Amino acid sequence: MQPLSPLDARQIAPLMLAYIGDAVIELRVRMRVLERGCYRMHEVNKQVVCYVRASAQASAYHMVTSLFDEEECAVARRGRNAKARHVRKNADMTEYKLATGYEALVGYLALTQEEDKLEQAMACLYQVVEGE
What we know:
By secondary structure, the protein is mainly alpha-helical. It has helices spanning 6-10, 14-35, 41-52, 54-67, 70-81, 93-111, 115-130. It has one domain: Ribonuclease iii, N-terminal Endonuclease Domain, Chain A, CATH 1.10.1520.10.
């Protein structure tokens, strides 16, 4: 797929960006867990859940908004402020909205193929979960 221009990517609905971001995060986290030598399905799933929970992504949201420029922060805010129809059972509304903002930013960075910034965003999540 050809990268989208930042203008074209900003035209995509924030919840769609979050939907794409969720898939990108899930795949990258699964790959990271496998690279660390974890091959048992139950254990992989248990570790992945630590990264994809709303509380971890909400913390990563705060980290990325201090690192990224105004354009990218605006994408994250749009995702955060999007009207979600439901909240996951294990997350409060504030965490869920911040996590949606983080996912929207990741989706935007993936679609624009800003690989360095995408790696920075993922590093924030890794730091939250792994404490590195």
